[in-house]
Design the sequence.
């Protein structure tokens, strides 16, 4: 049995025409970081709030460490949550914030509390800052204090609701590395929610992709990048291009050519061939020709929109090559960065 | 300097009007408080007469007591009201309406309603008599025209607590809720959340609203004029009676009282603001 299980959870908000979650199943193993990933408004935060007890589900069960916790109030669930905003108590110092819950719950002696707070400050790399007012902290430091405050409760499960989305890029990656380090050092089980696929890939042991109110697949991040199982997954994970195609075994034919794709699964017949923007190779010498319609420099690479065999493609090319709008680019496509996906009957 | 003047120029009519509305009456009152027989300058005599008067001190302390109790009870009720109204329950809209409709009732009407409701010949006493709870309507407790100011406090509380409640409710439904949820997910129980998270977050806002409540009840005339006792008069009623004295000889004392009560009110508000500001600084707000 998994450490955390959500079985058949359903939730419809008052006044909403459709459920935000339906038949929502999820399993999280002890000590892992599982990231729930999905578009904004798809129900990720609702799922997290149901686990924390801040929202109640209409159907289904939440089982944590072998115990059904459906009827328990948030304070009784042995979970702790870190929100997008740090929500630090402004009337308290850094140390008082970190020791907030065990101090109020008298969970340990004063000496032990002081020692554990100091340990946590060290773990958060905030040594010597315990006496500071939280208003003096940077955004990244605030979020680290928030993380420490949650970890001080020694939760069975740490819930992270887009904890990095309010931070600058460099702070974001630094704090993410820190979260992974804490997970490794403390063995904390974490359920992490984000809408950012790059953040998910960096944070997760496994990713649960949430679409249409349910988890459509739970797998290692790389699986989503290399082998999307559905149009929704492909669209979400940066497979920018799709071309109508015919699949026959591992061979896929489309207007751009016939490609042998290793490991291609699924039913034969009509569908889509998804192509990652990074699939371009052999620039200036390939057999495909496209007319550049727009140029978007992005540092080390440039993203071109071009028209090729009647299809509009978005391709990323090293900045060493420079094309202007209206010029013709010749290139090949790497079949390892292509994947056939069956048509979605609902689309 | 020129630039400042040109920026202020469009507002000059308003500034002049405001100055006339605030400064001129203040100057008149202060001037009146120093005048004696035949309009001659009387020095501090009116002030010393007022400050030596037992009735003035009795009235001032009575007014302060009524205002402070009304404000404190309004604040407590407002927080309870706001906590109740932020929950979802059937009939919430009706409850919200009932708790707010008295804001729209003029104080004069509110005082009259209390007379009909709470006096010994009022609705509640008749009801209690018919129900056999009291032998005669005369046994009904004095809730209006009483020297303890109960009727005054009931009206002030009834009129003002929704006002504080609405400002607190806004907070409870916004940022305060997020903090409370955060505390809940950290394993902190309901009572401790109320004491350590909700109260510190709503008290600054409730305090600001309660200053207005205090000032309004302290300076109110209509309610004490209708519901007050002849033995314990609020300062506003006392000032009015002195001002309206037929032979006008008490008018300078009335002016001196106005200045002294205004200074008392200012002192209370400044102390209160200083206390809440230092509290806010401590909370890092």
Sequence:
């Amino acid at each position: 049995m998994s450490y955390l299980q959500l079985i058949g959870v359903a939730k419809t908000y008052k006044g909403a025409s459709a459920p935000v979650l339906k038949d929502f199943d999820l399993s999280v193993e002890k000590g892992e970081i599982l990231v729930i990933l999905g578009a904004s408004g798809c129900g990720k935060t609702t799922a997290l709030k149901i686990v924390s007890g801040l929202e109640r589900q209409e159907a289904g069960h939440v089982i944590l460490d072998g115990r059904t916790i459906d009827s328990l109030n948030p304070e009784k669930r042995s979970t702790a949550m870190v929100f997008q905003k740090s929500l630090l108590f402004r009337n308290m110092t850094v140390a008082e914030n970190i020791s907030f819950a065990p101090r109020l719950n008298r969970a340990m002696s004063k000496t032990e509390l002081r020692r554990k707070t100091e340990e946590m400050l060290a773990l958060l790399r905030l040594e010597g800052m315990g006496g500071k007012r939280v208003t003096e902290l940077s955004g990244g430091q605030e979020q680290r204090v928030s993380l420490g405050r949650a970890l001080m409760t020694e939760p069975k499960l740490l819930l992270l609701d887009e904890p990095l989305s309010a931070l600058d890029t460099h702070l974001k990656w630094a704090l993410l590395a820190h979260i992974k380090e804490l997970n490794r050092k403390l063995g904390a089980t974490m359920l992490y929610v984000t809408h950012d696929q790059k953040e998910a890939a960096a944070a997760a042991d496994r990713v649960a992709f949430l679409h249409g109110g349910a988890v459509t697949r739970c797998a290692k991040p790389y699986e989503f990048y290399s082998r999307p199982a559905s149009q929704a997954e492909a669209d979400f994970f940066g497979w920018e291009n799709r071309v109508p195609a015919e699949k026959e075994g591992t061979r896929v034919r489309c207007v751009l050519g016939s490609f042998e794709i290793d490991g291609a699964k699924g039913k034969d017949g009509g569908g889509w061939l998804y192509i990652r923007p990074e699939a371009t190779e052999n620039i200036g010498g390939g057999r495909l020709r496209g007319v550049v319609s727009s140029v978007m420099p992005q540092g080390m690479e440039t993203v071109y929109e071009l028209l090729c065999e009647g299809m509009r493609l978005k391709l990323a090319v090293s900045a060493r090559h420079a094309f202007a709008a209206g010029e013709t680019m010749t290139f090949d496509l790497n079949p390892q960065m292509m994947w056939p996906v069956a048509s979605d009957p609902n689309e | 300097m020129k630039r400042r003047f040109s920026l202020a120029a469009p507002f000059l009519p308003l500034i002049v009007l405001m100055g006339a509305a605030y400064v001129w009456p203040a100057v008149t009152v202060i001037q009146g408080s120093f005048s004696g027989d035949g309009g001659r300058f009387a020095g501090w005599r009116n002030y010393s007469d007022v400050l030596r008067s037992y009735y003035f001190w009795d009235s001032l302390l009575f007014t302060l007591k009524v205002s402070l109790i009304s404000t404190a009870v309004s604040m407590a009720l407002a927080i309870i009201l706001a906590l109740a109204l932020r929950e979802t329950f059937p009939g919430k809209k009706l409850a919200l309406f009932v708790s707010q409709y008295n804001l729209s009732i003029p104080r004069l009407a509110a005082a009259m309603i209390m007379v009909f409701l709470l006096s010994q010949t009022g609705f509640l006493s008749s009801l209690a008599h018919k129900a056999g709870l009291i032998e005669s309507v005369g046994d009904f407790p004095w809730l209006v025209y009483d020297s303890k100011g109960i009727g005054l406090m009931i009206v002030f509380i009834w009129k003002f607590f929704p006002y504080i409640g609405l400002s607190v409710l806004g907070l409870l439904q916004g940022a305060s809720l997020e903090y409370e949820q955060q505390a809940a997910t950290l394993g902190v129980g309901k009572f401790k959340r109320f004491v350590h998270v909700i109260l510190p977050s709503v008290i600054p806002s409730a305090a600001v609203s309660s200053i207005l409540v205090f000032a309004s009840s302290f300076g109110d005339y209509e309610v004490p004029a209708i519901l007050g006792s002849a033995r314990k008069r609020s300062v506003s009623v006392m000032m009015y009676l002195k001002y309206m004295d037929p032979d006008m000889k008490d008018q300078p004392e009335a002016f001196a009282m106005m200045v002294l009560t205004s200074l008392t009110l200012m002192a209370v508000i400044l102390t209160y603001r200083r206390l809440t500001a230092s509290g806010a600084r401590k909370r890092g707000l």
